[in-house]
Structure prediction request, 263 residues.
Amino acid sequence: MNPYARNKLDKILSDNKSGSTEILLKLIKWSKNNAENKETLLEMIDSANKDLLSFSSVQAFTKNFKKIIKENDKSKIIDFLKEQTEEIENRYSNLFKNSLTFLKNYKKIVTLSNSSTVIEILKRLNKKGKIFVTIGESRPQLEGRIMVKELLNNKIKVEIAPDAFLSNIIEKADAAIIGADIVLSNGDVVNKIGSRSLAIFCKYFQKPFYILSTSDKFSKKKKYIPEKRNENEIWNYNHKQLKRTNYYFEVVEKELITKVISD
Prediction:
């Protein structure tokens, strides 16, 4: 792989602020730019399978893409990548249609992190009737700010709050709506750290807690093993008696979820 393509790919694989669908779209775009080189595409697949284990949609994409690449036909590669982009848009449309029955009467909504799926549904929901969204800032990477800017650009009223304050927000909200990185086969959901706390807050205050997930994020796996991340993101301070804990994703048990809405 040439250094330029490798550098671009490494930036995508190390992106710890974007949601899984957004990263998938970046991989599709990268693949279109490197469609002539079979070995480069296969190297991308190996790297994505290793670095993006937490993203079911990416794993599903690489599995199907690898079969197409081995046919060694550039036109089929281009067609496949185009179909993948169109499929994502169709999933959003179907997801919104399926979610409207449940979400149409909610005006005060709480969410967290940065999910392109949640953003798309909130944008469309706001066109049906103005909504107000509170977003947890989502430490340690603060990617909640990305969602804030995206919703503001679409003229949606937004509030940002520390993750620990969401218990106070949800008490007066209508519902919480988050995305998913993996929907496990037992009904549990894997999403950004803070999702489980938000679900527990909803349970306590008797507020609905919805998961928005496209079908490519459904997995046959029953269990998720959390991956520990860079401890310096929590605090760049070392002491022999100090333990620093940093995980990006966690499991939300199905008992805490009102409904998983999919396309």
Q: What stands out?
A: The chain is about 45% helix and 15% strand.
